[in-house]
Structures are given as structure tokens and as C-alpha cells.
């Protein structure tokens, strides 16, 4: 069972850390006035957003890797580690960062963002396979769970870690849907972040009101 | 008695205003916690079923009652 749920723990840490650090970080920057200062820079806003994403990735990956290595050595799950594992890993990270960027963007628009982030993080924790594998959910819940960030990534990662390869994940439909999910979530996060920041710049929302 | 009712009315009004200010949070949390409790109920104490790869999704009234009390108490404390 741990063989199937530990990859979901890795994915959950990526997604929840990106969301919490992204949301908390930008809120602190607004309150401290440093977000406005950063946007006085001649650097393009897209470059600033890329820098923020890189920082979020570093903050999320450090605890996720430490925990995955510790549990991996501690419990010794039967994983088949091959290069094709890197594909779902990279897609999980992209999915988690897209979700984190979306929560970061919403921080500038939604007053009760703390509760929103916690509810969504709980949804990721519960539905993305960290407690029980997604296949054990009732069919309707299983379909819903696949819309939740990192669920499909965890399923594909479990397929590859079981030694069945990407071809199996492609033929059972999880890999194509994962690619669509990552593209949509990352695109949604990027567009929402860009638009929200543009609006905040226009309306003076980059610093405390 | 009148002052007691006025104070009580004031507190209720303040609570409702506070709830209205947090309507988005409540709209998100209420359905999510309901689903969470309903799904968590069959999972708790069913480790042997989960390990065997099949979970019987039926609700146990005793376990759900305890979960409800725990969640309501936690939520009420968080709101306060």
C-alpha cells in the first residue's frame, strides 16, 4: 500500500508547499511594499513570474525530496526506478507549480485566501491518493479525483514505478489526460497571475491600501 | 431582560455580519467538509480492507456521529 501512496505524498508536498509559500509570500510582499518595488524593475513581468516559479519549485522540492528519500529508505517500497519515471515526476512538479501559481494569483483578489488555500490543499491531500489509492474510491469520486491537481501524475508515476512503462500509462489514458491537465492548469495559473498583477498595478493593489 | 435580549441580538447580528464577510470561505468549506466526513467515515478503521485492495463504502453511524462532533467543535473553535 505504501508503494502506491508514497508517490502521492511527494506530489502533495510539492503542490501544498507551492500554494502555501506562493500565497503567503506574495501577501508578505504586498504588506511589506516589496512587490511594488520589484515591479519598478525594468525586467519584464513574465521574467519576474518565472523567478517566482523557480523559487517556489526550490522551496517545494527540498522537503518533498527529503521525505521521499527518507520514506523510500525507511520502508523500502518495491519500486522499479528507471529513466521513464522522470516524465511523470516532471509533470507532477509542473502541475503542482501551476496550482501554486493560481493560488498565488488569487491572493491578490480574494480576501479569505488562507481558508481557500487550506481547503484546496485538503482536497489534494484527500483525493490525490495520499490516504488511499485513487482506484479504491467509488467510480464517480474516482472521476472527480482525477480533476484534482497531481492525482493523474501520481497514477502515472505509480504505473512507471511498478515497472510497466509509459506505454501502459499512455494506452490506459492516464498519461494523455495528465498532459492535458498540466497544460490547462499551468496555462490557467500563468494567465490568472499575469492578469491579476496587471490589474493590481493599475489599481494600486501592489502595496498595502 | 430587555438589555439581555438587546445584547443577544447584537451578538447574533455581529456573527451574521462576520459570516457574510466570509461567505466565500463558508461556501467552499461547508460542502467540502460534508464530503470529507462522508468519505472519511468508511475509511477510518478499515485499514485491513484498504490493504487488501477493496474498500466497502458503507457508513457506520457511531463513527460518523463522532466525526461530526469533532469537526463541528474544531470548526466552531477555528471560527471563534
Fraction of residues in H or I helices of chain B: over 70%
Mean residue pLDDT of chain B: 85
Radius of gyration of chain A using CA atoms only = 18 Å
- Tally of separate helices of chain B: 4
Number of strands of chain A: 0
Largest interface: A-B, 16 and 17 residues
Cα distance, first to last residue of chain A?
A: 50 Å
How far is it from the N-terminal to the C-terminal residue of chain B, by CA? 26 Å
**In DSSP terms, counting alpha (H) and pi (I) runs of 4 or more, how many helices of chain A?**
9
Low-pLDDT stretches of chain A are none
Query: Beta fraction of the residues of chain A?
Result: under 5%
Low-confidence stretches of chain B: none
What value does the average pLDDT of chain A take? 91
Structural class of chain A: mainly alpha
Indicate the structural class of chain B: mainly alpha
Number of strands of chain B: 0
Strand content of chain B: under 5%
User: Looking at the structure, what is the overall shape of chain B?
Assistant: elongated
Amino acid at each position: 500500500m505504501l508503494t502506491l501512496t508514497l508517490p502521492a505524498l511527494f506530489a502533495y508536498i510539492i503542490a501544498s508547499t507551492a500554494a502555501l509559500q506562493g500565497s503567503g509570500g506574495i501577501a508578505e510582499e504586498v504588506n511589506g511594499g516589496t512587490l511594488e518595488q520589484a515591479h519598478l524593475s525594468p525586467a519584464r513581468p513574465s521574467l519576474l513570474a518565472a523567478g517566482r516559479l523557480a523559487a517556489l519549485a526550490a522551496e517545494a522540492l527540498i522537503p518533498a525530496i527529503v521525505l521521499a528519500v527518507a520514506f523510500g529508505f525507511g520502508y523500502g517500497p518495491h519500486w522499479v526506478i528507471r529513466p521513464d519515471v522522470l516524465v511523470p515526476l516532471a509533470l507532477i512538479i509542473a502541475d503542482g507549480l501551476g496550482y501554486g501559481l493560481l493560488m498565488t494569483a488569487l491572493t491578490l483578489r480574494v480576501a479569505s485566501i488562507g481558508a481557500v488555500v487550506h481547503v484546496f490543499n485538503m482536497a489534494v491531500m484527500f483525493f490525490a491518493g495520499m490516504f488511499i489509492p485513487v482506484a479504491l474510491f467509488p467510480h464517480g469520486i474516482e472521476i472527480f479525483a482525477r480533476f484534482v491537481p497531481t492525482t493523474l501524475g501520481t497514477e502515472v508515476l505509480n504505473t512507471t514505478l511498478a515497472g510497466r512503462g509509459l506505454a501502459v500509462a499512455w494506452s490506459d489514458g492516464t498519461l494523455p489526460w495528465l498532459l492535458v491537465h498540466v497544460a490547462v492548469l499551468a496555462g490557467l495559473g500563468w494567465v490568472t497571475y499575469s492578469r491579476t498583477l496587471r490589474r493590481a498595478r493599475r489599481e494600486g493593489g501592489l502595496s498595502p491600501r | 431582560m430587555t438589555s439581555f435580549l438587546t445584547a443577544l441580538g447584537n451578538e447574533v447580528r455581529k456573527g451574521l455580519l462576520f459570516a457574510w464577510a466570509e461567505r466565500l470561505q463558508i461556501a467552499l468549506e461547508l460542502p467540502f467538509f460534508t464530503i470529507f466526513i462522508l468519505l472519511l467515515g468508511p475509511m477510518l478503521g478499515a485499514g485491513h480492507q484498504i490493504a487488501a485492495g477493496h474498500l466497502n463504502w458503507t457508513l457506520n453511524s457511531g463513527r460518523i456521529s463522532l466525526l461530526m462532533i469533532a469537526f463541528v467543535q474544531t470548526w466552531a473553535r477555528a471560527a471563534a
